[in-house]
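[Automated response] Your request has been received and processed.

Submitted sequence:
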Amino acid sequence: MKRKIYSPIFLSMGLSYAFSSGRHRFASVIAFFSMLGIMLGVAALIIVVSVMNGLEGDLKERVLSEVPHLVITGSSGTIPENTDMSGVLRIPGVTAAMPEISEEVLIQGENTLTGAHLYGISPDKYPVHDILRIDAGSEAFSSLEPRSFEVILGSLLANALSVMPGDRVRIISTSGVRYTPFGREPVQRLFTVSGVYNLGVSSSGSAPMILANMEDVRKLVRYPRDSVSGFRLWLSDPYEVGQVRQAVEKLGFKIAADWRETEGEFFQSVAMEKFMMTLMLALIVVVAGFNMLSALIMVVAGKLQEIAILRTMGMPSRTIMGIFVVEGAVSGIVGTCLGTGLGMFLATHIGATLRLTGLYKYFWAMAGIPVRVDAFSVLVIAISAVTMSFLVTLYPAFRASRTRPVEFLRYE
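Generated structure:
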């Protein structure tokens, strides 16, 4: 029974060459390991990029919950508490706005004195979706009533001061002073710890944060009535702070601070680490591509007589080139498809995979590894691998298409 040749002929012959070893077993072994290298490289890229995306998103959510995304104020450095924020809230990306009084203070526990940043807030205006409020609990926030003189601390600061909910701490203002018969002394007051939050990570570039009722902070630092130091804005995506900042400035407000001033370098280092890891793993795919190039060169060298016969029978050079492009690209396409499937499976089941291999205890203790599989990143990796596989076939295929039949059939 005759084997049917499908049209176009270069596709049929290219697939036939790709899946038949013939007498070129060594070249077939190289092609197989090239396909395996592409598969593992693509899978590793997808896993690492997904983990880095998840880690970056987790850090962005947790670290930037402790740092104001954007703070706006008036030209004098203060702003009326009843300022209309409706125009700001209509800016795309702004999810909430809250008046606050911020002050650098010293906080003293039983045996430790350290610096911190005190924020006077209105608990009823603090966004309910914020991860810090969720972790601290609604009870701790509801206790921040005027004249209650209670505070919420981060777990790292609470541990450094050796305090827990119900204990008392002394907060000393670094700007306010009062006059006594013994001279000037800084304004200070005892506060009760009402709650402790634990975000798992802490801000790397700013002082620890303390939350208290705005009226209590106003009284401590002798802040003018009906004025606040600024309005704190929450953004749906903190990375869009530059665009939001420009829109806020067009409304006539002054920018007091944004998160990039304290945490910008940290997130730049995270982005650089992500880029370098992606680049190093991409070299696995590149090396596999060069292996595929060498395998295809060997295949072309072993089929010179067959190519000469096909050229003698009238096959155009572009068809010859298409045959070997198809033969070489098949390894890349198959390896990319297998690697994409394997990478997405392992990325979405990385916790179970690490438990199975015994490596789970080295990653994030029992909190789990944050993973975010981004469809666009997966698509870019897959398209890049297929494109590279196609490009490395061009040179051997071109050399095959330039074969002169008379040089190889003169002695046949």
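Summary generated for your ticket: The radius of gyration is 33 Å. The first helix runs from residue 9 to 18.
If you did not submit this request, please reply to this message.
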